[in-house]
């Protein structure tokens, strides 16, 4: 009813997303060679170059990205994990972000460069971040995925994530 009313008043749906939850241990147990993943407390220039939400994130975006009780940024270097072939500011092959808050680990910004997809890099990033979150005492995981992102939804299905709820983002016309 609310969606129909918003649309009747000229609001347009921009994105529909699904929030998913899972036990964290199976994500950490995924078979993945996490040695190529670099974990840091802050996003560097390379991580930001891969981040697709903003071409040049301003101070407010950087503040939000770094906020949370325990924030981790994962980076897989650009040459499919071979740091020697990529400069320090080259866009990575894959990135991810995890915020640990008590028993919950929230995963965001899991992104893989188009030329590196279907190689298991998203799984590798998720496993590395999950292992760090487990080390900090987390036991449950959540993430959100856009409903039209079939590849990511299939990936998260395979990791044991199940739908918790959906939401829609609207913008006035």
Protein traits:
alpha+beta, seven-stranded mixed β-sheet, GNAT_dom, 173 residues, 34% strand, transferase, acyltransferase activity, transferring groups other than amino-acyl groups, 6 helices, GNAT family N-acetyltransferase, Acyl_CoA_acyltransferase, Aminopeptidase
Report the sheet with the most strands, covering strand number, pairing sense and barrel closure: 7 strands, mixed
CATH-derived topology: Aminopeptidase
* Chain-averaged pLDDT: 90
CATH superfamily: Gcn5-related N-acetyltransferase (GNAT)
Widest sheet, order of strands? 2-3-4-5-6-1-7
Helix content: 25-40%
Shape: globular
Percent of sequence in beta strands:
25-35%
Q: N- to C-terminal separation?
A: 19 Å
Return residue spans where pLDDT drops below 50 for at least 5 consecutive residues: none
Per DSSP E runs of 2 or more residues, the count of β-strands stands at 7
Radius of gyration: 17 Å
Structural class: alpha+beta
Q: Kindly provide the name of the CATH class.
A: Alpha Beta
The number of helices is 6
The number of domains is 1
The CATH architecture term is: 3-Layer(aba) Sandwich
Helix and strand element order? HEHEHHEEEHEHE
Organism: Streptomyces anulatus
Keywords: Transferase
Protein name: GNAT family N-acetyltransferase
InterPro entries: Acyl_CoA_acyltransferase (IPR016181), GNAT_dom (IPR000182), Rv0428c-like_C (IPR056935)
